[in-house]
Automatic annotation (TrEMBL):
Coiled coil: none annotated. Transmembrane segments: none annotated. Has nucleoside phosphatase activity towards nucleoside triphosphates and nucleoside diphosphates. NCBIfam families: PRK13662.1. The active site is at R29. Its EC number is 3.6.1.15, 3.6.1.6. Mg(2+) 2 binds at D111, D113, D126, E129. This is Nucleoside triphosphate/diphosphate phosphatase. Its cofactor is Mg(2+). It comes from Fructobacillus broussonetiae. Residues 24-162 form the DUF402 domain.
Length: 189
């Protein structure tokens, strides 16, 4: 009797692709070569550093600074901590929980974003885009309610310094990335 092994998720040091979609199923944006720093039953932490990004219209660009990415299977947001010279800025996407297959980590981007500046100032972005897409693609009432509830959860995390917003989070994960990159260099010698 042949038993299929369960497929394993990515492991520390693996490189994955991230794909965001819109509610109608169209591809929105793709990030190549995100290094996985940690996986758990419900979350993935990774790092982008000068990562190639492809937009839905084919435009390509490369990220300017290292950024720690946080995805969760239960929360309707993901968090990007951008490590800049003037401090850490956060870009938080209101989005479906992620799914993972052999091709990529995937999620649906629901337009609304929260940006957190190094001084802690917060801005809700793209409410007009959310309203337009909600009307265009007929977002279900349940999705609207979930997203509004998760904006509150996200703001609580920010205000309480929870998860990716906690003291030391960025330092710990960026140090881990630097260690893994050094290991790769040593392995090539």
């Amino acid at each position: 009797m042949i038993v299929d092994k369960p497929s394993r998720g990515p492991r520390e040091g693996d490189v994955i692709t991230i794909k965001s979609y819109k509610h109608d199923g169209s591809l929105h944006r793709t990030w190549r070569d995100t290094m996985v720093l940690k996986t758990s039953e419900n979350a993935i932490i990774g790092l982008n550093d000068h990562t190639l990004v492809t937009e839905d219209n084919g435009r390509r660009w490369v990220t300017r600074e290292p950024a720690i990415v946080y995805f969760h299977k239960k929360y309707w947001f993901n968090i990007i901590a951008m490590i800049r010279d003037n401090g850490v800025s956060y870009y938080c996407n209101l989005a479906s929980p992620y799914s993972l297959d052999k091709e990529a980590l995937k999620y649906i981007d629901y337009d609304l974003d929260v940006k957190v500046f190094p001084d802690g100032e917060k801005h809700l972005l793209d409410a007009d885009e959310y309203a337009a897409h909600s009307k265009k693609w007929h977002y279900p009432k349940e999705i609207d309610q979930i997203l509004k509830a998760h904006v509150k959860i996200l703001v609580d995390w920010i205000n309480e310094g929870k998860g990716p917003f906690s003291k030391g989070y960025v330092d710990v994960w960026y140090s881990r990335y630097q260690y893994l990159m050094q290991q790769r260099l040593n392995d090539r010698r």
